[in-house]
Amino acid sequence: MTSNLRWRVVLVLVVLALSAWRASYTFQYFSLTDEAKDQMAPEQLEALEGRSLRLGLDLQGGMHLALEVDKEGLPADEAKDVMDRAIEVINNRIDQFGVAEPSIQREGDNRIIVQLPGLEDEQRAKRLIGRTALLEFVAVQPPSEVDLVFRAIDRALLDTLVAHGELPPEPEGDLPTAEAERLAREHPFSSRARFLQDLPFFPVEDVAWVDQQLERLDLDAILPTDPDAPGVPRYTLAWDEESRTFQDGNEYLAFYVLSSEALMTGSVIVSADVRAGLDSKHPNSPGIQMRLSRQGGRIFAQHTGEHIGEYLAIVLDGVVYSAPVIVNRIPAGTPASITGTFSDEEARDLGIVLRAGRLPAPMTVVEERTVGPSLGRDSINNGLRAMMIGFVLVVVFMVVYYKASGVIAVGALLFNIVLIVGLMSGLPVDPKPALTLPGLAGIILTIGMAVDANVLIFERIREEIRNRKTIRAAIADGYAKALLTILDANVTTLIAAAVLLQFGTGPIKGFAVTLSLGILASMFTAIVATRVVYDLVTVRWRLEKLSI
Amino acid sequence: MEFLVGTHFNFLGHRRAAFIVSAVLILAGVISMIAHGGLELGIDFAGGSLVQVQFEKPISAEAIRGTLARIGYGDAEIQRFGGDREAIIRVADQGAGVDVAGQVLEALSEEHPDNRADIRREELVGPKVGSELSRRATLAVIYALIAILIYISLRFEFKFAVGAVAALVHDVLITLGAFSLTGREMTLPVIAALLTIVGYSLNDTIVIYDRIRKNRGRLHDRSFVEVVNTSLNESLTRTIVTSLTTLIVVICLFFLGGEVIHDFAFALMIGVLVGTYSSLYVASPLVVEWEVRSEARRRHRH
Fold this sequence. Notes:
Shape of chain B: elongated
Largest sheet of chain A: 9 strands, mixed
Largest interface: A-B, 72 and 68 residues
Number of strands of chain B: 4
Number of helices of chain A: 16
CATH topology of the largest domain in chain A: Multidrug efflux transporter AcrB transmembrane fold
Number of helices of chain B: 9
Oligomer: heterodimer
CATH topology of the largest domain in chain B: Multidrug efflux transporter AcrB transmembrane fold
Helix content of chain B: 55-70%
Radius of gyration of chain B: 24 Å
């Protein structure tokens, strides 16, 4: 045979061999039963998984999150690397969460895409990832300051209520005394509070009302500021994380007037471990014990030495978790602890979050798509079933209509599928292309369209035969004339796929990738591979009549 | 086995009738869209939350709605999904940080403790992302059409490009109309299907154009109308066979592919059918009309 034909045969065989070899990993991996998976060594299993076709989240089950970072209010130099730091923090948190093959990527200027395949507990993951985790040690203001603040709020609230023609809320008790009514009218805010050991508490039912009223007032304008630094807010207000039951049987939530400047932040934490029994009130509840850095320890010691009798609050994301009273100076090296109403899981996650560090800026979830594993499995099963039946029907049609040539076309189809799987699992791109449900549909579509290239060629060959050319001439001319048409026609579908690739995310991108690969594969098999077979057949076996 | 060889249909003779059929189909779709105030948008474009719940035992939509009303989601959209044990609940955007799926699951478990509910899928699209995706989807379709216009103008002639793009717009409009008439939602996969149809329908059209170009050179003694007619007849077999095989495969997807991919398969199905039709009865006839009229104008001037 001619050397040209020999090279082509070699090319086709090499491509076939490579694809089949890569595709075999996928076949191996997906035919493993669960017991077989358990029996394999984890590194072996991971390696096999890494070499096989990657499944999209809609087939594997898992969570896709798009987080938007709020850069507002950040100083310019911080805003520059806030994205990288945020990604690092999320990476750390996910690492400790233990998800196989997570993917964290930056999108555009202020978005981060997180993909967690095989995730079971989405709620927990969302909380874990999105939590700002700003930990601060803040001084609780002494009663004299609290008084000032409350009075300021009273005055402002009174003005607002009068301006809107609203009445202050009803005073407590069934039969309010004249005195109680007067208090309620003149001190709409502080009259609702009860004081215990110098700390103000509000009944749990009033918490929403308090939040509402505080939101209406411009706190920065009303609250007294530092005479040395006018305009700089001096106080922050925060609620306790946990309510307390008073002697009268009702639940109350502590309301803290804090200094606006934190004494220390979470950056001084060297380690954060979950321990039980840190709080005598909840001996069986888990809590977090933190060790502070040397500098943190020194600040801690100094402050506690100077403020004995006052409270020191440990605030996480604006909520007070612990506020122990300073009994005496705490020497450096003593661990600090956070206790509260945590479940074991919550405590563990809090530990993770504290260890991984705080997010440099708040984030919101702007897009989330989670597919449960059962739906993923169903989708795969349905998709594969549709593909197999469709394939069989097309095969039947091709063989009936084009006879032996139809068989060659079917061989090309199989070659196609192997090529696509081989390419998808073997292409050295990052991130590796994933097969999504639309992608599976794309492969199925390619089966139908791949036939097209063959049809063009065969119809052309039939025409040439009808024009009474010799078999070899008919084949050569058929291929030649069809080639340009095939290229033209497929390029347009590739254009559409390219556009999809640009604009799509997730499943759509997967679809565009598989469609493109499918088209390229079908062009290769139709133009090169089937031609090789024909040439082999007519040259080696000198066929006179063509079964087409 | 062969069929449709040596046919001599007068495709172009029927082109007036074909244009009317196309117009009617497009109009039906457009009227439906206007009547419904536009297309039904899925959460991908409108924003909102979607929760797909599967129950252990059958449960009525009213029971679900009752439970949802109690947590303030009384006007949620509830759709059946393959049987009476599964439903898709759709709620408008609630603002950041609200865990709609969690709330729904909790309420359902509380009120129907003997009928366990499982979340099979949940999706949340913030309003900003929703409008972004809408914009990108529309732009994508427009870019694709422009790119194709340019490509065909380069490979053939501008009037051929116009005919092709007109056929594509025709296909997209009819597919969208079919969606509106059957009350299906526009989601991202549907846009992907539309773009695929654009690419695929073009396949057909280009094969025919190729024929026309070759025959024009070969049969220079015949009128343009005859050339195109001949080309259409010659390409008929190939067009039908390819469409048939693609249709077989898409129909399998539609009936067997499962509920999640159902709308996507529907779009492909309509698209393949209409795409084939438009390659024969829209693209080429339009080119002929253009050519015939410009020829008439040229003769008139002389």
